[in-house]
Amino acid sequence: MDAVILGDGPLGRAIAAAFVARGDTVRVLGRPATADGRHEPATLAGADVVIEASRGTAVATNLDDALAAGARRFVIATTAWDQDRARVARTLEEHDSAAVTAPNLAVGMILFGRLVDEAVARLGRIAGWDPYIVEWHRRGKADRPSGTARALASRIIAAHPRIDHVADPAAERAETDAIEVFGIRAGSNPGSHLVAFEGPGECIELRHAARDRAAYASGALAAADWLVAATRPAGLHGIDPVVDELLAAGDTPASTPTATPEVALAR
Q1: Cis ω for the linkage preceding 32 (within 30 of 0)
Q2: Relative to the CA of 142, which of 57, 81, 200, 260 has its CA 20 to 30 Å away?
């Protein structure tokens, strides 16, 4: 597979290392040095799949550049681009192209979300059990709450009979119909998420911790393989179908290295 990764930060380098480890061809592109901040089509040409791992504000324009270069399969591993989601979906459909996206590509996190669904289905029926979320990321992470925490909160709200919004962090008093979401930014933690249900005299906690970015890289590779394996409908796809196929096949992505790989770099 010939993969182009847009973004040469920690996530992009981890995904590149995973591709290199299994013998794929990888090109990693940092922020463009052009006056208009756009990628040259020649640097993107010929890619079987393009991985977006840069920053949320660049997703839509990077997609435009890749489509202009002939790319038709994408994995969007970046967060904080919700404001451009409708535009991205429309552009993909117009170009008969497909993308897999998720706030968190780690396969374990997808399964973790399903465990949360099951907990809400059972505990949501019992009065006095209050759900909340605590997420912890590295000091330099820009968005708070994280995209993963927002996605977890959304699925809890969708399934819970009494919770219908995220609590205002500035509110002085707790709201009985809101879920509290707390964000911590400290150290170099790649990502930890706690979903807890506080009940009368007891508490149930579900926790997912990414020990390094290899977890995200494995999910990105699985998504890329899913796109290349068959023609997928145009538009945006979640990663759940990817995980479902892995489970049906009795397969899980192998652990991948996160050391900086020997790959082509362009700016």
Answers
A1: no
A2: 260
Which residue is it, tokens 């897999």? 100
141 in catalytic set: yes
Spatial CA neighbour of 101 closest among 132, 60, 138, 61:
60
For residue 30, what are its two tokens?
């940092």
Question: CB–CB of 104/191 below 8 Å?
Answer: yes
Judge if 88 and 220 occupy the same domain.
yes
| Residues of the domain holding 120 | 107-209
Indicate which residue of 39, 95, 141, 160 is catalytic.
Answer: 141
pLDDT in tens, 60-100: 999 999 999 999 999 999 988 999 999 999 999 999 999 99
Q: Residues 109, 111, 117, 123: is their CA dihedral positive or negative?
A: negative
Active site residue 165: no
Q: How many Cβ atoms sit within 10 Å of the Cβ of residue 111?
A: 14
Distances (CA, A) of 261 to 23, 24, 217, 219, 267: 11, 12, 13, 18, 17
Set 39, 95, 137, 193: catalytic member: 137
**Side by side, which strands form the sheet with 25-29?**
235-237, 98-101, 73-76, 49-52, 2-6, 25-29, 264-266
- Between the two ends of the chain, the Cα-to-Cα distance in Å is 22
205 three-state secondary structure = strand
237 and 202 together in one domain: no
Instruction: Please identify every stretch of the chain with a pLDDT value under 50, giving residue numbers as ranges.
Output: 255, 258-261, 267
